[in-house]
Structure formats: C-alpha cells, structure tokens
Design goal:
By secondary structure, this protein is α+β, with helices and mostly antiparallel strands. Helix content is about 40%, strand content about 30%. Strand 8 (about 255-265) and strand 9 form a beta hairpin. InterPro entries: Cyt_c_bgen_Ccs1/CcsB/ResB, ResB-like_domain.
Length: about 675
C-alpha cells in the first residue's frame, strides 16, 4: 500500500507539471520561456511530452500492478467480513464494548424477541440469530456496503490507469520495441516512398495523429510522431477536402470560425458522406474521431518580383512559384553571378497586428487564432490591432548552403505617421524576425526607395550628387569646392557600403591604417561634417534617382507637403543604413496570389476513453460508499429469567461519529423503556 501511494504521488506531481508546462511544443518555445539551463533539465526528463515518457508509463504500469495486488489480497477478506454477522461473539465479550445497554424486563424472552426484531427492521438492520446455552444471540448489521468503497476506489485507480495506458503511446511503442516498425526514412519524399514497416495498420488499437489535406485533394493516412521519429497510420476511409471555411471578425480581422467541408468515403462499404468538421463538432467513424485541429497554407500560388538591392544590377525578375516549392534564382553582384535556392515556407492572406509597438510586428500563431474561435476574441484583441494584409515567408539558401529566413508584407503599414513596408529577416541564431522599414512613395510602392538604393550603388551618380551639392554653395575663397566634392563622394560611398555604422567606424579609425586615421581632436567636427555632406548630397541623389524612374524633381507646394517629403527622406536614409546589414542581395515583393487553403485534422482512436469513464464511475461510487455510508454492528443477548428476561445490547462502528452517537442514544432510550419498573 505504501508503494502504491508513493507511485500515485509521483504520478500526481508529474501530471501537475504536465498541466503547468505546455506539452509538445518546439524547442525554441521552451528555451525562450525558461532559458537554456532549464530547457536542458526539462530535456533530460522529457518534460515537453511527460505523459508519454518511458518513466511515466513505467510508474503507471507499476501502480496498476501494485494496486491490483492490493485488491487480490484484500478483496476476499473484505467480502468475507461484509457477509459475516459475527454471531460467534459471546456474551462474555459484553464488557469490552464502550457503547452498551443492560436491562431486565418483565417481558418474557418469547415476548421480547419480536419487539427486538421489529426495532432492528425499523432502523434498517439485517440480523442473524443463534442460541447458545439458553441465551439467544442476535447479530445485526447495516451499512456493510461501506467496505465496497475501498474496492471501488482502488479498482478505479487500476481502471483509469489502464485506460490511460491504452490511450498513450504505449501500444505503438510496444510494436516498435518488438521490432515490427521502423521510422519513415529521410529520403522518402512521396507516399510511394514510405515502406510498409513505417505504416501502422487500420486495426491499430490506439493512436493520435494529424491529417493535412489541401483543398481539392485526398488523404487516407495520418502522420504519427513518436519521440523524434515519424510514422504513417493507415485509415479505413478516405478524406476529400472540398473547401476550407474560414470567417473573420469585421472589427479586428481575427478568425471567428473555421471548418472543413469534407467528403468521407468508407472503404468497407463504399458509402460517401459529406460532413462539416469544426471546433467542438468532430466526426466519428470506425472508432476514429476526427477533430478540427488547425489550418495552414495548402500550396498557394504566388506572383513575386525580385528587386536587386546590392551592386550595379537593377534588372528586376518576375517569379511564379507556390508555397512549399523550391525555385532556383540567379542574380549578379559586382559582375559575379550568384545562385540561390528560394523556398516559399508560408503564406497568410490576413494578419492581425497590434501596431502600438511600432516595428515589432510578429504574425499571430495558431494559439491566437484558436483563442479567437473558442474564446471571446473581440475582448482579447487590442483596439489598435488591425489587419495589415497578406504576408509570405521564404528561405534563401546560397551556394555555400547557408540559409536565412525572410518575411515580407505585401502592403505598406502606417507606423509613426509613416507608410512603410516591413521587410523581415531571421538569422539562424535569432529567436524572432527583425524588420527594416522601407518607406512607400506617393504611389504606395517601394519603387522610389529602390531607385535611391541603386543610385547609392552607382559611383558616377554619387559623384554627380556630390558635385551638385558643391555647386549650390556660395562662392567663397575660403571654401574649396573640389575638396567638398571629394568628402561628399567619400561619405556617400561609405554609407552605401556600411551605413551610418561605416561612417562612425571611419571617423574612429576602425580598419584604417594609422597614418590615414582622422586625428582624435578632429573626429567630432569631422563626423558632423561628413553627415551633413551625406544628407545634403543624398537630397540631390534622390532627385537624380526619381528621374531614372520617370518622376519629376521634388517641388514643395506647401508646408505639409514639405514635411511629408522630409519624413519619407528620413525613413529612406534609415532604411538604407539598415539594409547594409541585409544578408541577401535582393528583395522579393508579392504582387498577386491565388490562395489555396489546407486543413489539419486530428485523427484519434482512444478505446481507453470509455475505460477511463468507467473508472471515474467506480471512483464516484467508491467515494460515496466510503464517505456517506456508515457501517453499524449491533449484538443483543436475550436471556430468559424466572420472572421476565435480561436484555444486553452493544453497538459499535469503525468511525464513531455524531451520527453513531445519536443512533446509540436512540437505541439506549428505546430499550430502557422495556426495563422493569422498581
């Protein structure tokens, strides 16, 4: 019993940990939430999937065995004790009872016996009589079913644990340990490549897997994840996704309902059914329940434009691709052709962002979407959350097999009073995306910014802009305009290559021979001069860039127009500086798309569910029996006398509660009325 209790405590603690810590999340989630140290601790005990760890299943198994032995050893004794009236107790044991009554009455034994029997029946006792040495012993009892509480409570533990083990990964892991199954090999790209050893049959007693199917496509298998390996679970029916239904709140753009319109074809009968599967409305067939789990892109077709942002090349490219597809890109940087592999990871037509934290936009994951459907989305979304339109994520892999993830929004968003495009990137060491803000021009595009970027990359245009700035200065014998042209050109070149950080490094002498460094006493004024030359030359460079794309030179109609142009220029200069750290020589912009949705259904066969329900019923019965039914035992000895009879009675109970005391008092009072009057 002590061992069983210890195991039960371990299970309770582990279950509490599994409840408090989200299960089956990706590695970065736990590192971000708890830190590297605690993630390493969690990994050793597999806290992220605690209910399917070997030690948790082992403890569950030992608890079942231990508790079963307790039942086997004690149930026969309990049942025997319940059925026994213990009529063998003799009158000599009377003195040992603390709750007893002894009277002499004028009634004869024959008269007193039916009176005693009536009293016992009235108070719910069953009894058995035995006569020894002219004394009638009446052994009575009630509430003996109280002992069943022990049996049902322990049987509930065994039943619930067995149900839990059946619904865990244990049945599948047993097949793995027996060597019948092998994980899907990494080389398998299509269903036809998956060997039979990697598939579980339709008769598999228990499983929990995901089915991903795009609109217009079919699926008849589920993907099982056991530890870090993948397997396929064959299904006894086919699922065809007719369309994925998603509805949004008009106020904030969050999804309020999503469902799958599917056609189910039963392989056994050939019968077809059209069903709508949505959250809280699953579908069941052959003991398998299909739940609406999530959704994702099902291969949307995207029309992209490639804009070079480094080097002299200004030629754009049109790319037609789709989500999940890999395309080879070729671009030229400094007369050297470079090849990249473009993989489209995801596409989302609607993205709700809280723009109160400017520039920190992060697309909402599925938890936010599920919250919107199952909870009060309107009250949980901030008032300043808006739909910022389509977004697509992609990965660029260079010739050295180095990959960087990118995330771009199709439409510009309003941040700090400026209309900007958010261009995100995520290095392998980054936890999330960081964004550059590219200002939108008067047409709502990034054409002017890209033209300005190309102008910065053009040495001749930089020299012309520097010369134009010098020509605007008043004639003054103290001013060497040629020297200004040189310094302005140098500032533009340094900025084009390394942004503001490049200017600061030049002034501080980083990476420059000591003989060419700016003297320390002149660094502060030189920094101010170079920045002034940069900004004023860049103004002329902007006008030159506008001419290259067919836009007129800037002219300010009013103060408001001048302020707007100043905001654009400030944003552009900051973005140009940020883009020097952009790892790719190109930006991909989404022009149009054909959205194709995919649903994720969870397929579950859980026969242990009904066993767990039965165990819960046993637990309720057991608790009720133990706490609300009290066992009473009563012995009455009736001995005939010459002029009446003697009645002795004793009452006992396992727990002598107030109810027991009241019942004994009633027993004492009722039988005292039969006492002989002196």
């Amino acid at each position: 019993m002590r061992f069983a209790i210890a195991l039960l405590v371990v299970i309770c603690i582990a279950s509490a940990v599994g409840t408090l810590i989200e299960q089956n999340r990706e590695e970065i989630f736990y590192i971000d939430r708890f830190g590297t140290y605690w993630y390493q601790v969690f990994s050793k005990f597999s806290i992220n999937q605690i209910y399917n760890t070997w030690w948790f299943l082992l403890v569950m198994g030992f608890l079942v065995i231990s508790t079963s032995f307790c039942l086997v050893r004690n149930v026969p004794k309990i049942i025997k004790d319940m059925r026994s009236f213990k009529e063998h107790i003799r009158q000599g044991s009377f003195r040992a009872f603390s709750h007893k009554v002894s009277i002499q009455t004028d009634y004869s034994a024959e008269q007193a016996k039916p009176m005693i029997q009536v009293w016992l029946k009235k108070h719910g006792y069953v009894f058995k009589e035995k006569e020894v040495d002219n004394t009638l012993t009446i052994a009575a009892k009630k509430g003996s079913s109280n002992r069943l509480g022990y049996i049902f409570a322990h049987l509930a533990i065994v039943t619930i644990c067995i149900g839990g083990l059946l619904d865990s990964e244990l049945p599948n892991r047993l097949q793995l340990w027996m060597g019948d199954k092998a994980p899907i090999p990494p080389t398998a790209r299509y269903m036809s490549d998956v060997p039979e050893q990697s598939k579980f049959g339709v008769s598999n007693i228990s499983f929990r897997g995901n089915i991903s199917v795009s609109e217009g496509e079919n699926a008849n298998h589920a993907l099982l994840l056991l530890s870090d390996d993948r397997y396929l679970q064959n299904l006894p029916f086919d699922i065809h996704l007719n369309r994925f239904i998603i509805e949004y709140y008009e106020t904030n753009g969050m999804p309020k309902r999503f469902a799958s319109d599917v056609t189910i074809t039963d392989f056994a009968t050939g019968k077809k059914e059209n069903k709508i599967i949505e959250v809280n409305h699953p579908y069941q067939l052959h003991g398998i329940t299909l739940y609406q789990s999530s959704f994702h892109d099902g291969g949307s077709k995207l029309d992209l434009t490639l804009y070079p942002i480094k080097g002299k090349n200004t030629e754009t490219q049109t790319i037609k691709t789709k989500v999940g597809e890999t395309t080879e890109l070729k671009t030229t940087l400094n007369d050297v052709e470079q090849t990249y592999q473009l993989t489209i990871n995801d596409f989302r037509p609607i993205n709700v962002e809280n723009l109160s934290n400017a520039g920190s936009a992060q697309p909402k994951d599925f938890e936010h979407q599920i919250l919107a459907v199952t909870g009060s989305a309107a009250s949980k979304v901030a008032n300043d959350s808006v739909n910022v339109g389509p977004l697509f994520q992609y990965t660029l892999t260079d010739e050295s097999n180095q990959s960087v993830q990118y995330q771009n929004y199709m439409l510009p968003v309003q941040l700090d009073g400026r209309l900007v495009f958010l261009i995100g990137m995520k290095l392998p060491t980054d936890a999330g995306f960081s964004y550059a803000r590219i200002p939108a021009d008067e047409k709502g595009t990034m054409q002017e910014f890209l033209a300005l970027k190309a102008a910065f990359e053009n040495p001749e245009m930089r020299r012309q802009a520097a010369q134009a700035y010098a020509d605007k200065l008043e004639e003054d014998p103290r001013i060497d305009k040629q020297n200004i042209v040189v310094l302005a050109s140098m500032a533009l070149e340094i900025f084009a290559n390394n942004g503001f950080k490049g200017l600061d490094d030049y002034i501080e002498g980083k990476g420059i021979p000591e003989a060419e460094r700016v003297p320390e006493a002149l660094r502060a004024p030189m920094k101010s001069i170079l920045r002034d030359y940069l900004i004023f030359s860049a103004i002329d460079l902007r006008n030159m860039a506008r001419q290259t794309i067919g836009l007129p030179a800037l002219s300010y109609v009013n103060q408001s127009d001048a302020e707007q142009q100043a905001l654009w220029f400030d944003s552009a200069i900051r973005a140009l500086s940020d883009m020097t750290f952009y790892p790719a020589p190109m930006i991909l912009q989404l022009n149009s798309f054909e959205h194709i949705q995919a649903t994720v259904l969870q397929a579950t066969r859980s026969p242990g569910k009904w066993i767990v329900y039965l165990g819960c019923l046993f637990l309720i019965i057991g608790i009720f029996q133990m706490f609300y039914i009290r066992e009473r035992r009563l012995w009455i000895w009736l001995t005939p006398l010459d002029n009446g009879s003697e009645i002795k009675g004793a009452m006992t109970s396992v727990k002598r509660t107030l109810d027991f005391q009241r019942e004994f008092t009633q027993f004492q009072q009722d039988f005292s009325e039969l006492a002989r009057k002196e």
